[in-house]
Amino acid sequence: MAANARPRMPTLAAHHREPPLNRPDPDDVELELFIRGLQLRHGYDFSQYARASLKRRVQALAIATGSRTIGELTSRVVRDDVLLPTVVSAMSVPVSEMFRDPPVFRALRAEVLPILASYPHINIWQAGCARGEEVYTLAILLEEAGLYDRCQIFATDFNDAALAQAQEGIFPVTEARQYAENYLAAGGAHTLNHYCHAKYDHIKFDSALRRNVTFANHNLVADGVFCEAHLILCRNVLIYFTNPLQDRVLGLFRNTLVRGGFLCLGSKESIDYSENAREFVALNRRARIYRLGAPSA
Questions:
Q1: Domain 102-292 = CATH 2.60.120.200
Q2: Is 160 exposed, middle or buried (0-12, 13-18, 19+ CB in 10 A)?
């Protein structure tokens, strides 16, 4: 280099560059703020719900309410109490059908109800009953087994709108064919028309099926033991929870069941990972039916 030449300043490219920050997606940040806002303002805790499915529901809710972003939706939820029922309905997953997964109900008929028949009174908790399809399924199952008159079904959900629909027992007639096929596949003794009638575009189940049903609001995330139960059905609910919350709910079920009581989960759910698994014996692993320890002497 010539003696009078000035050294060249290093260019920006020559400087050491910090690695790019692993920044979360803006929607993920807004989702966390939405969850926190809903909990602080209204007391509903969705922090232990599986994020992928929850995010889809919140994004759909934002669109349905005319909010441009999840952040805008959060601001409205925090300030507008009138919007809360819509939010709660959107956060739940009230999707089911009569006799869904027929082999499960065949297993309940053959392996569980004959044991429950030994009790003078039977309490059944349908946790996460949504719009009530499985409540009426249970009532029919018990009626045909000759057990319904000594049973009490507690049907719970945190979604008041879904509970109101469940109490009505009215469903779209477009679902009737699938319900009827499921019923027969589950070993039904009659036809489904024996328990309901069609009017206009809906089917309505006989009110007699509700005679031993108590509908109530109960939140599996925050509430405690609801009753002493001989059988709990909570199907296709735990899949929306994180593992710690699933374990908490399974502990709640363990504390609710009588010794020798039964737990029936959804087809994609299992207790195997849970600390509570040691308390249960798999009665029918394919049907996801478990029994709490050994029956009392």
A1: no
A2: middle
